[in-house]
């Protein structure tokens, strides 16, 4: 239950606790003035693999998870209150509106 935005916020906060991985590939010709003058510019290629782990965030990531979880619980409670207002007496039919100019007791 709850809106998709609230669910995605909760999931994003949980995923922020996981490590980030990256791969970088670059290539091109080495730009050195002397080698350019001699027309001996070699090709250069590099590759790098990286990982970043949230080691110390001062509890901020855990707090974001708790906040997102509380917002999701609030959205579920709001949904429940709307349902309870739609079915006020625990019955199985929605509340009916009285026609214009007529009160509920005058049916």
How would you characterize the overall build of this protein?
There is one protein chain. The protein is an alpha+beta fold and 107 residues long. The chain has one domain (4-86). It contains 3 helices and 2 strands. The chain has a two-stranded antiparallel ribbon with strand order 1-2. The longest helix is centred in the C-terminal third of the chain and has 27 residues, at 60-86. It starts with a helix and ends in a 21-residue tail after the last helix. The mean pLDDT is 78.
Pick out its properties.
107 residues; 41% helix; 3 helices; alpha+beta; elongated; two-stranded antiparallel ribbon; single chain
Helix content range of the residues, please?
40-55%
Largest sheet: spatial strand order: 1-2
The oligomerization state is single chain
What is Rg? 30 Å
**Mean of all residue-level pLDDT scores:** 78
